[in-house]
C-alpha cells in the first residue's frame, strides 16, 4: 500500500476515534437514542390532573450585570383563554412526561412541517420538557394533548369529565425528538444555565390513527427563525398552561407585552423577555409575533421566570434552531408512511 494511502487511512481512523471519545474538542456529548414506547392507558385523566410542574424559578437578578439586558418589565396579569380552546387556540396543548420525581407537565405548540405540508406531526416545546440537561437523560412517556381540557372545566365538572372531554383530539405519543446540543451540555434545573438553547421539537403520533396531528386538529403554527431582536418587535403573545400556584394547570392562559432583552451570559444569545404572571407548567408554551406578511408565527418558547412570577423569558430562534427543526422534519418524513 502506498505511504500516502496508509497516512490517509490512519488520519481517518484517528479522527473517528477522537469523535467517539469526545477528545480534543468542545462538542456536547453524544445523545443516546430517543426511546418512548407507547404505554396504553398510562395517561388517564386522573394521572394528567396529578402531574406537576418540573420548572425551577431563576434568581430575580439573573442577567442584570451580564451582557445586554433591558429594565425588568412590569408584570402583565395572565388572561384566561376563551373556551372552547379548539376554536381559539387549537395549536396549544399540554405536554406530559415522567421524570425520576414523577409525572410532570409543560406546554407545547403544534407547528408546521415543511417536509409534510398540511400533515405535520411536529410539536415545539422547551428543551427542559424533553431532556434533563447536563448530566441527565431523556424523560420518559412523553405525550402531547392539544386543546387539553377544551371547555375549561373546573372543580367537580373537571373531575367528572371523561377522557374525551379532557383530551378532545386524543393523546399523542412522541416517537422522535430533537433537542439543542447546547441544552444537553449546559442545561440546569436552576440558575438559567442553557436557557438561550432551551428548545426542542417532538414528532408525535396517535396510536391506531393514521391521520397526522395537523390533519386532526385542523391547523399548525408557522415558525419564524431569525425574527428581529426585541427592540424591533412591538408586541409578543405568550400561551401556556401554568400549573404552579395560584394556577392549577387545568386551564390555558396567555399574556401580551412588548418584549425586552435578557442576557444570561455575555457570550451567548440574548433572550426575549416579557412581563407575565404565568407560573411553572407554562414552560415550552409558544411565543408569537407578526411576521412580515402580518401572520402570527412562533418565534420562541417559555424557558425561565423568577420566583415571584412577574416575567418570562425565552430563546431567540436562530440558525441553529432552524437546523434542529429541519432535522425533526427529516426524521418525521423517513419514519412516516405516505
Structural write-up:
This protein has helices spanning 3-21, 45-50, 85-88, 155-160, 163-166, 181-186, 213-217, 319-335, and strands at residues 52-53, 79-80, 92-99, 102-111, 122-125, 140-146, 172-179, 200-205, 236-240, 253-257, 260-262, 271-275, 286-290, 296-301, 311-314. It has 338 residues and is α+β, with helices and mostly antiparallel strands. The protein has 2 domains: 1-30; 31-335, Thrombin, subunit H (Beta Barrel). A hairpin with a 2-residue loop joins strand 3 and strand 4 (102-111). The longest helix has 19 residues, at 3-21.
Note the topology.
Blueprint: H1 3-21, H2 45-50, E1 52-53, E2 79-80, H3 85-88, E3 92-99, E4 102-111, E5 122-125, E6 140-146, H4 155-160, H5 163-166, E7 172-179, H6 181-186, E8 200-205, H7 213-217, E9 236-240, E10 253-257, E11 260-262, E12 271-275, E13 286-290, E14 296-301, E15 311-314, H8 319-335
Parallel strand pairs: 1-4
Antiparallel strand pairs: 2-10, 3-4, 3-6, 4-5, 5-8, 6-7, 7-8, 9-10, 9-13, 11-12, 12-15, 13-14
Region (Disordered): 54-74
Organism: Streptomyces coerulescens
Keywords: Hydrolase, Signal
Summarize this, please?
The protein has 338 residues and is of the alpha+beta class. Helices cover 20% and strands 24% of the residues. Residues 1-28 have low confidence and may be disordered.
Overall morphology = globular
Strand content: 15-25%
How many beta-strand runs? Answer: 15
Amino-to-carboxy terminus distance: 48 Å
Taking pLDDT < 50 over at least 5 consecutive residues as the criterion, the unreliable ranges are 1-28
Structural class: alpha+beta
Query: In percent, how helical is the residue content?
Result: 10-25%
Largest sheet: 6 strands, antiparallel, barrel
Which CATH C-level class of the largest domain is it?
Mainly Beta
CATH topology of the largest domain: Thrombin, subunit H
Tell me which CATH architecture of the largest domain applies here.
Answer: Beta Barrel
Strand order of the largest sheet: 3-4-5-8-7-6
State the order of secondary-structure elements, H for helix, E for strand. HHEEHEEEEHHEHEHEEEEEEEH
Gyration radius over CA: 20 Å
How many separate domains make up the residues?
2
Counting DSSP H or I runs of 4 or more residues, the number of helices is 8
- What is the mean predicted local confidence, pLDDT? 89
EC number: 3.4.21.-
Region (Disordered): 54-74
GO molecular function: hydrolase activity
Enzyme class: hydrolase
Amino acid at each position: 500500500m502506498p505511504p500516502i494511502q496508509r497516512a490517509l487511512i490512519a488520519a481517518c481512523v484517528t479522527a473517528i476515534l477522537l469523535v467517539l471519545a469526545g477528545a480534543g474538542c468542545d462538542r456536547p456529548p453524544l445523545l443516546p437514542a430517543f426511546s418512548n414506547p407507547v404505554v396504553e392507558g398510562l395517561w388517564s385523566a386522573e394521572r394528567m390532573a396529578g402531574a406537576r410542574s418540573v420548572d425551577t424559578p431563576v434568581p430575580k437578578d439573573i442577567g442584570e450585570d451580564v451582557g445586554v439586558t433591558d429594565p425588568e418589565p412590569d408584570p402583565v396579569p395572565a388572561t384566561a383563554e376563551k373556551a372552547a380552546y379548539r376554536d381559539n387556540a387549537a395549536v396549544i396543548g399540554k405536554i406530559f412526561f415522567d421524570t425520576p420525581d414523577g409525572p410532570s407537565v409543560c406546554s407545547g405548540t403544534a407547528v408546521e412541517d415543511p417536509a409534510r405540508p398540511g400533515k405535520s406531526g411536529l410539536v415545539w416545546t422547551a428543551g427542559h420538557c424533553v431532556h434533563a440537561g447536563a448530566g441527565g437523560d431523556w424523560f420518559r412517556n412523553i405525550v402531547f394533548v392539544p386543546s387539553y381540557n377544551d371547555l375549561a372545566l373546573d372543580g367537580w365538572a373537571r373531575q367528572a369529565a371523561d377522557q374525551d372531554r379532557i383530551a378532545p383530539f386524543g393523546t399523542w405519543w412522541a416517537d422522535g425528538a430533537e433537542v439543542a446540543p447546547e441544552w444537553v451540555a449546559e442545561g440546569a434545573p436552576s440558575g438559567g444555565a442553557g436557557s438561550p438553547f432551551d428548545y426542542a421539537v417532538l414528532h408525535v403520533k396517535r396510536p391506531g390513527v393514521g391521520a397526522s396531528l395537523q390533519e386532526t386538529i385542523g391547523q399548525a403554527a408557522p415558525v419564524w427563525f431569525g425574527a428581529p431582536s426585541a427592540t424591533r418587535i412591538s408586541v409578543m403573545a405568550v400561551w401556556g398552561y401554568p400549573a404552579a400556584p395560584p394556577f392549577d394547570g387545568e386551564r390555558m392562559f396567555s399574556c401580551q407585552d412588548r418584549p425586552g432583552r435578557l442576557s444570561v451570559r455575555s457570550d451567548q444569545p440574548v433572550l426575549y423577555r416579557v412581563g407575565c404572571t404565568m407560573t411553572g407548567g407554562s414552560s415550552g408554551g409558544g411565543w408569537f409575533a407578526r411576521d412580515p406578511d402580518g401572520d402570527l408565527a412562533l418565534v420562541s418558547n417559555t424557558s425561565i421566570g423568577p420566583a415571584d412570577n412577574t416575567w418570562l423569558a425565552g430563546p431567540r430562534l436562530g440558525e441553529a434552531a432552524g437546523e434542529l427543526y429541519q432535522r425533526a422534519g427529516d426524521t418525521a418524513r423517513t419514519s412516516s408512511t405516505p
